[in-house]
Amino acid sequence: MKCQTGVFALLIFGSALVAQQGQSRQVEWLYYGADPAASKYSPADDITPQNVQRLGIAWQWEHGEQALEEYGTVPFRFENQPLMVDGVLYVTTPYNNAAALDAETGKELWRFDSGAVKLGGIPGTGFKHRGPALWRDRNDGNKLRVLLNTRNQLFSLDAATGKPVASFGDNNRGGVVSLTDGYPRPISDVRHVNHGASPPVVYRDIVVVGSSIPDRYQLSSEPPGIVQGFDARTGKRLWVWNAIPQSPTDFGASTWEEGSWRFTGHGNVWGPMAVDTARGLVYFGTSTPGNDYYGGRRLGKNEPAESIVCLDINTGQRKWSFQMVHHGLWDYDNPAAPNLVTLTVDGKRIDAVAQVTKQGFTYVFDRVSGRPVWPIVERPVPTVTDVPGERVWPTQPFPTKPPPFVRQGVSLEDANDLTPAIKELAQTEMKKYRLGPLFTPPSLGGTLQLPGNEGGANWGGAMWDAQTGRLYVRTKDVLRYNGVIANDGADTFIDHAYSGHLPAPARPATKLGAMPLIKPPYAHLTAMDLNKGEILWQVPVGEGSLAIRNHPLLKGVKLPDRLGSPTNGGAILTGGGLIFVGGGDGYLYAFDKNDGRELWRGKLPYVNAENTMTYRTRAGRQFVLASTGAGPDASLVAFALDLEAK
User: Fold this and answer.
1) Beta-bridge partner residues of 127
2) Would you tell me how many other CB atoms lie within 10 Å of the CB of residue 296?
3) What are phi and psi of 21, to 5 degrees?
4) Cβ contacts of 224 within 8 Å, gap of 6 or more
5) Of 336, 488, 550, 646, which one's alpha carbon is 20 to 30 angstroms from that of 294?
6) Options 2.140.10.10, 3.40.605.10, 1.50.10.10, 3.40.50.720; CATH of 3-645
7) Partners of 363 in the beta sheet?
8) Who has greater pLDDT, 280 or 610?
9) Averaged over 489-512, what is the pLDDT?
10) Taking the alpha carbons of 386, 388, 394, 398 in that order, is the dihedral positive or negative?
């Protein structure tokens, strides 16, 4: 809860500096993705390749939340990405609370307690929150509202005071509406739902909120993921869209054999969303239906799960969708916000939408019609399975452009080769499990899956450079052991016959320990030319974990400076030509957007797992912010140029 004055004081000295600051216009950050189209781009250009080395910590702010024994809760990763408007930062905390900070100094102005922590812990995911949304009430003196989605409620707060707005929602509980009343099936336990991960999106006077049924719950007749539209002024629910069909006439119902849509849950919409404000369309990704690794009681393609979906934001009606994974068995949901882009392909200008995925693909569509910009081909994939009752879908959709941005599939050639001895040990271990190309199904004996269930790309998403037609994405290459075992009934959260979430079968200990089975790098930053559908460059991000660097098998071995540090957070692009990204290793990095050269890194108090953001204040100072840490050891860190050095 405290703000710490950092390395550089906010000094004003001399008339020349005052004049220089007066020429600088304020650059705000109004949306989670910088703008409704999720570009993650800011025109702020004070920090450049020429002066980035002068960045230092200006201030820090701590959310101050602790483990609470009475509720059985622990704050999870500090994944917040603040918004900045009119010199004020709006921040959310792991416990789904909100605060306002002075954007120049980090001083806390107000704090709002949502009470979400009283609902208790969330099995499997923990308490976290990625940010609020903002809306202006032009019928009430143009007042600004902070929209905070929590585990089960949506709050409208007065941005000036942090107080709930009495005219929003139930008059008996002014300022809040329920997010669980719109489900088509009863909610037996409030822990079954979580609306507090990614922030809402706003279009005119409509607020759109996604949802998540925690993966740890795998019970019959669980709720499906839903998307809801609310009146931003009154809180009235306007529409509900179900990620799993709820009647025989709903889109996709015929792709669920024996009517399994009737009792299947999940299909969540937990990632960030994007809005085409000119057309009134909202875009988002859906996730795997329950459960993530066993589909024996939901045979079929299971549309529109694991799809990109476009809805009319005024009505909630589906305009189009495209399924990236048929009958998902890999937890390859779509967690990243789609990027709304304008391309010139073969001389034709196209308003498009690009979706980066966990499996390492970039799917690109005409954003109005849903037609692929480049062909997407159904290709045969491995179908042999030893899991009783399972039937693997025989093909999956592969985009022909751009190429994959991560390694896909596992063979012995992927074995860690930092030394000959490590390669031999890695291959010996890998031979114990099923190996194969992308979409090799899980097995009772264990399948090695690459990319793993966290990607590839994750909720950090991609950045769009409209000036160059480039899409940038931060990714990771991490194996997952995808083993499915029979349910012995010991876990009351699971009633499926098989699951990959049950305790994994014992695996023989190896001499590798924390050493990854596959060769580095384990994280990359990739640039793609979306006008041509080509990858331009790819560089490693992060120095890699100390557990790898200090491993006894690497004693005396000269290692690359950057082994790559996997994390789910993304990056931002600035008008100064820089990409800022948390390294996942205790540093914030800056790369040249043109060629991927690493230009700077600054030490953080804790590991960064969230997207960064940037803004310029009225005083003429550009800040770059990173949320760091987890639990009570967490801090929002603001970097700025050293004014005294000018």
Assistant:
1) 75
2) 17
3) -65, -35
4) 183, 184, 185, 213, 242, 243, 244, 246, 264, 265, 266, 267
5) 336
6) 2.140.10.10
7) 355
8) 280
9) 78
10) negative
